[in-house]
Amino acid sequence: MSNWKDYKNTFDSSETIFSLARSGHIQKLKNFLDSGHGVDINKKNHKGYSPLMLAVYNGNHEVSRMLLKSGADPNSSDLSGNTVLMGAAFKGDVEMVILLVNWGAKLDQRNHDGITAEQWAKAFGRSNVVSLLSTKANNTKFPNVILAAKVL
Predict the structure, then answer these.
(1) CA–CA dist 23, 10 (Å, integer)
(2) Contact, 71 vs 105, CB < 8 A?
(3) Contact yes or no for 71/42 (Cβ under 8 A)
(4) pLDDT tens digits for 14-53?
(5) Spatial contact of 125 and 90, defined as CB atoms under 8 Å apart
(6) pLDDT score for 126
(7) Distance separating alpha carbons of residues 23 and 25, to the nearest angstrom
């Protein structure tokens, strides 16, 4: 390698998506996805985190939406079996929970300890998320719940 450009070409392009998902730079992520790097949108890093999981955990709504539109799995999980929805529930991010459920996140998925997203929300006192998830579990008409959650 004789210069910076050659050195940059040795990087695994799929690693870049993790930092972009974490940072929330929507335009940089869009440019990256549009550039044709051939990135596996569901690839996991050494901790088992997908780009979507990093975006969700950092509260990056636009990035999460873009990743989902690009084919990210709303039910991906880390090495402990914690799902993307569990991350949003733990954080108490109602808007993110709604986004994930609307994209097909499973409410009944359990981690390796048998804990669901709703149980994570309860354990950390995220009452708005608990209410939303329990309502959704008992109600197939989620659009009404979405409107109520946005008011909260």
Answers:
(1) 22
(2) no
(3) yes
(4) 448 899 999 988 998 898 888 876 788 999 998 999 999 9
(5) no
(6) 96
(7) 6
